[in-house]
Amino acid sequence: MIGLIDYNMGNLRSVVNAFEKLGVPIQVVKNADELEKFDKIILPGVGAFKDAMECLEKEGMHEAIKAFATSGKPLLGICLGMQLLFESSVEFGNSKGLGLIEGEIIKFDTSRFKTRLKVPHMGWNELFVQKESPLFKGMSEAFYLYFVHSFHAVCDDKYVIGKTMYGYEFASAVQKENVFGFQPHPEKSHTNGLAILKNFMEM
Predict the structure, then answer these.
(1) How far apart are CA 80 and CA 183, in angstroms?
(2) Is 62 helix (H, G, I), strand (E, B) or coil?
């Protein structure tokens, strides 16, 4: 059974719709005590890092997520949900994250852009696979996904399974053992996104 964490900071409907297309049941969960009963969980997110962490901490969900990750069962963070997996973010000051993956979240450095590009990074862009992952099973070495974000992860390359170019190269997909994160939105990325979610379902 797959659980979808509801902490008032995510577009849950689009994720639910994606799994409905796959013919797979997914259950929205708001109670931290219920996380342990799921085989896999998804941490979505839209909005500010600091606000999201405050919501998770208010409900006691942050400790439940850490315990779930320790159990070895698959955990997938999407967009802001991926960013929350890291140790910290500079968004609206320095904020502490879940600390499941070593690294930090920074704002796009527009001074490094070779051309005048807008922030947020919004729309379709290509993810280039960096290493094997169960989430990429049956997929090509590069494919398009849908992005909407102004901040991105900086971490050791050993955790990076996918990179994307927007002004400069950044980590767009990460994995540390059973913990996965995607900066783009698989649930909004049609065939390619559904393939990723299907692979997560089948893990």
Answers:
(1) 7
(2) helix
* Residue-range domains of the chain with CATH: 2-201 (3.40.50.880)
Residue type, 110: T
What pLDDT, in 10s, does the model give residues 134-170? Answer: 999 999 999 999 999 999 999 999 999 999 999 999 9
Q: Of 176, 111, 183, which Cα lies nearest the Cα of 147?
A: 183
Pairing relation of β-strands 168-176 and 160-166?
Answer: antiparallel
pLDDT < 70 stretches in the chain: none
Interacting residues of 25 by C-beta distance below 8 A, sequence separation 6+: 1, 2, 19
Q: How far is CA 22 from CA 2, 17, 128, 157, 199, in A?
A: 13, 9, 24, 32, 11
CA separation for the pair 179, 51 (Å, rounded): 22
CA distance 30 to 60: 10
Q: Does 25 sit behind a cis peptide bond, omega within 30 degrees of 0 on the bond before it?
A: no
| Residue 115, token pair as written in the block | 């051309």
Residues with active-site annotation: 79, 185, 187
